Amino acid sequence: MKKVMVGMSGGVDSSTAAAMLIEKGYEVCGVTLDLLGEKSNSAISDAKKVADKLGIKHYVLSLKDEFKSNVIDYFVNEYQNGRTPNPCVMCNPTIKFGIMLDFAIENGCDYVATGHYANIIYDENYERWTIKKSKSTKDQSYFLYKLSQYQLSHTLFPIGDYEKTYVRELAKKYDLPVANKSESQDICFIKNISPAQFIVNYTGQLPKIGNFKDVSGNVLGTHKGIINYTVGQRKGLGIALGTPAYVFNINSEENSVILSDLEHGKRSEIFATDVNFPLYEKIPDKIRALAKIRYRAQPVPCNIYYIDENKVKIEFDSEIYFPAPGQSVVFYTDDNLLLGGGTIV
């Protein structure tokens, strides 16, 4: 019998995943990651209640220091340097499918499992593990492109293709105590405040005010600190110019935020670094793909050109708007296989 350790966040998705695996005949145990100290207590408590209900062993693994250095500090530093971070993309390979997987293997498990909406498949054509988009509207494949072959081969996503409404129905069928628990927030360590306010609270430093400029360098007004802005932002700028304005660029060295009209935000090509392509052992010189420059963005046909093992150039068939440095660009095949991804520069 294969043994699985389920990463149990105390939410309905991971709890249902655990119940499904038991029903399928796996030997299941659960682990909750203590990432935030006292702020993790309610998640740990809810996960323990589910584990007790299912009759499985439950571990708590403290990773506060690792989470701080790998995810929170990265998040803060990116904003302070005028970039738009992607904390889930950073957390998944290092924490959830990194340290948590190591812990599972050390405790005699064959796999880890989570409540992610995505599918892991072994592609016979490529002879590689990769991810396939979920049919669910909550597809989370975008955040998983950094996973290695080892991590993919030891991971299960039981609820992969289901819609959230059906997962809740399953949770009620299993009589789980979290069946009606509300949806978790996008960024797990930020609750009820803006990213900028979180950074102020975390660092104890107030942001430095600076200048809004246009693309020609003319001063337009005063901004509240670069941590309050991201490339492509239109709402909440705190300046009225009479015409729609967008954040075109953020210059952290001179503490300025450059604004432009929509037309200036068009791009036909971008570069990405820190790339990972699960579907390829060696990145081809040219790849035809569909690319998403943000999680919520529509995929755009493109050509990917190999520069070196850590950098690619992407040329789009149609223009994209305001690609944000620091965000991930993620690539798919026509049949929704995840090719890979990288960080926009």
Structure keywords:
30% strand, alpha/beta
What does the average pLDDT come to? 96
Order of helices and strands: EHEHEHHEEEHEHHEEEEEEEEEE
**Largest sheet properties:** 6 strands, antiparallel, barrel
- Low-confidence segments, given as residue ranges, are none
- Shape descriptor reads globular
Which strand order do you get reading across the main beta sheet?
12-15-14-13-16-17
Structural class: alpha/beta
Counting DSSP H or I runs of 4 or more residues, the number of helices is 7
Distance between the termini: 46 Å
- Helical content stands at 25-40%
Number of strands: 17
Q: Which radius of gyration do the C-alpha atoms yield?
A: 21 Å
Q: What percentage of amino acids are in beta strands?
A: 25-35%
Give an overview of the whole structure.
The chain has 345 residues and is α/β, with parallel strands linked by helices. It has helices at 12-23, 41-54, 64-80, 87-106, 149-153, 164-173, 195-203, and strands at 3-7, 27-34, 58-62, 111-113, 119-123, 128-132, 155-156, 210-214, 219-223, 246-251, 256-260, 266-276, 286-292, 300-308, 311-321, 328-332, 338-344. A six-stranded antiparallel barrel has the order 12-15-14-13-16-17. It has a five-stranded parallel sheet with strand order 3-2-1-4-7, sandwiched between helices. A four-stranded mixed sheet has the order 9-8-11-10, with no helix packed on it. Strand 10 and strand 11 form a beta hairpin. Helix 1 (12-23) runs parallel beside helix 2 (41-54), helix 1 (12-23) packs across helix 6 and helix 3 (64-80) runs antiparallel to helix 4 (87-106). The chain is globular and about 65 Å long. The mean pLDDT is 96.
